[in-house]
Design a protein that fits this description.
By secondary structure, the chain is α/β, with parallel strands linked by helices. The protein has helices at 13-23, 32-45, 56-66, 83-90, 113-116, 136-145, 197-207, 240-250, 253-271, 305-318, 334-340, 348-356, 368-386; strands spanning 4-5, 49-53, 74-77, 95-98, 121-125, 149-153, 161-162, 165-166, 173-177, 190-194, 211-212, 228-229, 277-278, 286-287, 293-297, 321-322, 357-360. It is built from 13 helices and 17 strands. Helix 1 packs antiparallel against helix 8 (240-250), helix 2 (32-45) runs parallel beside helix 8 (240-250) and helix 3 runs parallel beside helix 4. The longest helix has 19 residues, at 253-271. 47% of the residues are buried. The mean pLDDT is 96. The chain binds pyridoxal-5'-phosphate (PLP). Residues 55-57, 81-82, 84-85, 127, 153, 155-156, 177, 179, 190 line the site of pyridoxal-5'-phosphate.
Length: 389
């Protein structure tokens, strides 16, 4: 049976040709394509600097380093995300402090942030869940009042817009991921965009072992071979091969976004009437990027909702529809329970959301026939269980 996944990449002959071109050149790893790709994304976001990494996770780790985090520091974030968000804080020895979601946006509840701020707080790390751009104007007000950095996890939100301003421009640092299920792909890859030159320099330092090659910045200079290591960095470099793919993909971003919006509109059209499913919110101030199309199983005539969601998940999988659940809230993972002492009941909105949530297939090459089949199976299940739609 051919599986319809919840998300996947779109690669065409042009992408392939661009990658092959690099393979015939002298540069395989950090070369001209890396900078071109960084410049393209920075320009799109309306910021001066972009630093590309070999994954979104390493990009986030570098952002936490650039923010100067260390043991004793705290970062306020949201549990409804992929584990990498909170893990990036832990890598530095700092502590992620979770705040529940706002059930009307599925992003961090901005009203609760101030209660979590204390003298150890250094940054706020919101997530644009599913591609819904968090209300950064409001969030920044809180951050500025307390002198905190805003680092936005926009892994879901490349191309999202707030009040005419692209995601990537307003936070101190914004992270994008180029994993194959995300909007554009480099296989693995990520990027931080920022308007701050000092942060950009730290990001680059961290990306390559903390090594300095600019004689003007070195403590000594023994000769042309010479470089110095100034801090403990990593090898988080992305390759020219990957960035050639990224650049070629980036040219298609707008058509990808339009197609995602079309698919979202079609889902709403087909399923918006049924009371059994809640459709995802759209911001009234801008554009949703629809990395995922997230629905909630609302109520059910038989059994409890989380059981109904599990049955629906299994039913759709048995029909070749690879729906997914995003996410088990981070604070419920065994590692977090053990090491941060978090527990079930800590963040009721995120936990309720998790018990109801399903991500339906959403990617540019999803055909209308395939989408109709998904809707047909879904509505069939609901009709069968509830006796009506
Ligand atoms: C994908 C993702 C990441 C990590 O990106 P990778 O490129 O897979 O390392 C971080 N945060 C969120 C919300 C993501 O969806």
């Amino acid at each position: 049976m051919k599986i319809i996944p919840y998300g996947k990449q779109f690669i065409d002959e042009e992408d392939i040709a661009e990658v092959v071109k690099v393979l015939r050149c002298d540069w395989l790893t950090t070369g001209p394509r890396v900078e071109e790709f960084e410049d393209a994304v920075a320009h799109y976001c309306g910021v001066k600097f972009a630093v590309a990494f070999n994954s979104g996770t390493s990009a986030l780790h570098a952002a936490m380093y650039a923010a100067g985090l260390g043991p004793g520091d705290e970062v306020i974030t949201c549990p409804l995300t992929f584990v990498a968000t909170a893990n990036s804080v832990l890598y530095t020895g700092a502590k992620p402090v979770f705040t529940d979601i706002d059930p009307t946006t599925y992003c961090i509840d901005i009203n609760q942030i101030e209660d979590k701020i204390n003298s150890r707080t250094k940054a706020i790390l919101p997530i644009d869940y599913a591609g819904y751009p968090v209300d950064l104007a409001r969030l920044r007000e809180v951050a500025e009042r307390h002198g905190l950095l805003v680092i936005e996890d926009a892994a879901h939100a490349l191309g999202a817009v707030r009040n005419g301003i692209p995601v990537g421009k307003e936070a101190d640092m914004t992270m994008f991921s180029f994993h194959p299920v995300k909007h554009i792909t480099t296989g693995e890859g990520g990027m931080i965009v920022t308007g701050d030159e000092e942060l950009a320099n730290k990001l680059r330092l961290f990306r390559s072992h903390g090594i300095v090659r600019d004689p003007a910045k070195m403590e000594a200079f023994d000769g042309g071979w010479y470089y110095e290591m100034h801090d403990l960095g990593h090898n988080y470099r992305i390759t020219d091969i990957q960035c050639a793919l990224g650049l070629s993909q980036f040219k298609k971003l707008n058509s990808f976004l339009n197609r995602r919006q079309e698919i979202a509109d079609r889902y709403r059209e087909a399923m918006g009437q049924t009371d059994w499913l809640a459709m995802p919110p759209e911001p009234d101030y801008g554009r949703h990027a629809y990395h995922i199309f997230s629905v909630l199983v609302q109520f059910f005539t038989e059994g409890n909702i989380s059981e109904a969601r599990k049955n629906l998940f299994d039913y759709l999988h048995s029909r070749g529809i690879g729906v997914q659940v995003h996410y088990l809230p981070v604070h419920l993972h065994p590692y977090y329970r053990k090491n941060l002492g978090t527990k079930s009941g800590d963040f009721p909105h995120a936990e309720k959301f998790y018990s109801q949530q399903l991500s339906l297939p959403m990617y540019p090459s999803l055909s209308s026939d395939e989408q109709d089949y998904v809707v047909h199976c879904l509505l069939n299940f609901l009709l069968d269980r509830n006796g009506k739609l």
